[in-house]
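Pipeline run #58 for the internal structure catalog. This entry was flagged by the ingest filter as a single-chain record with no existing model, so it goes straight to prediction. Upstream metadata was stripped on purpose; only the residue string is passed forward. Reviewer on rotation: M.T. Logging verbosity set to normal.
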Amino acid sequence: MRRLTRTVAAAALATALTLVSACSGGSDTTDSAKGDGKALEKVTYLTSFGNFGRDSYAWVAKDKGFFKEAGFDVDIKPGQGTGVVIQTIVGGQADFGPIDLTGGLLQLGNGQAKDFVAVAAIQQRTMAAIVSVEGKNIASPKDLEGKKLADTPSSVVRNLFPTYARLAGVDVNKVTWVNGEAQTLMGTLASGQVDGIGQFVVGQPTVEAVTKKKSVVLPYSNVMQDLYGNALITSSKIAKEKPEMVKKFTAALLKGLEYALANPQEAAEILKKNVDTTNPAAAAAELQLMAGYVRSSNSGTAIGTLDSDRVAKSIAILQGAGALKQNITPDQIIDFNLVPKA
């Protein structure tokens, strides 16, 4: 009887401890673990350039639970352009982030960065552009001569400008650049301090909302048609050591991208919920403009694909313009084993 009593008491104690443990876990357990009991892997993600509508798909992937379903607890931070995003990821302060792929080629081919790889395309065509407003007497690339432009020093728009200028017949020495920050560029244009800013074409609605003027957009794709837009990158170390993790994260992010493009208004509200300064109407309009850049005839219906031949053409364009100091190949910047298949 004593043995039976001890057994029952032990069982009761174990049950009580289990209940206490379950109660004390509360929402923390829900937030930090998947349904299968495995802890979520913490990931730091950088946006491409500030917190605009064009980058809202990351917030969507987090808000809709796509990251959590894939096993990740993601901290989203604002990026400051291609160069800074690469440096931060290679330096180990972040795990993933989108960069302009052409900007990545320039960084790699000029010895300014290494040890990073692209694992998915975000846009199939470059969205780089110079954006101005009416009243600045800018209607064509040639009109940029004698003007003052602002952008972050590491922005692909700024770093690719010499190549764009050469192909568009602009004397690059007659254009003045000044430094700016991602979140303040549009305000700089609105205040009249500069004549134009480096921007993505999808920034047009936000520029007009900030400046209260009709925008003038000079897309780089008008003179450089084979260039990709943003591509998701990670460090070479993570790609080599955690390939399955990279594939899962990429799939979750692209799921957020697809959802955001299909539901731009909801995506804009999700961004507003997380970034208080968001203009939801402008953010939704950015996503609607971006939709045409995310898929192309080359990518078919799949999102995220990268084609080696097209990347080789991009490299050839930059080499032909004298923009690369070193010869590089597509395999040096893209891990095609991790890229989504068409």
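catalog note: The CA atoms of residues 129 and 315 lie 19 Å apart.
catalog note: The longest helix spans residues 2-32.
status: ready for reviewer M.T.
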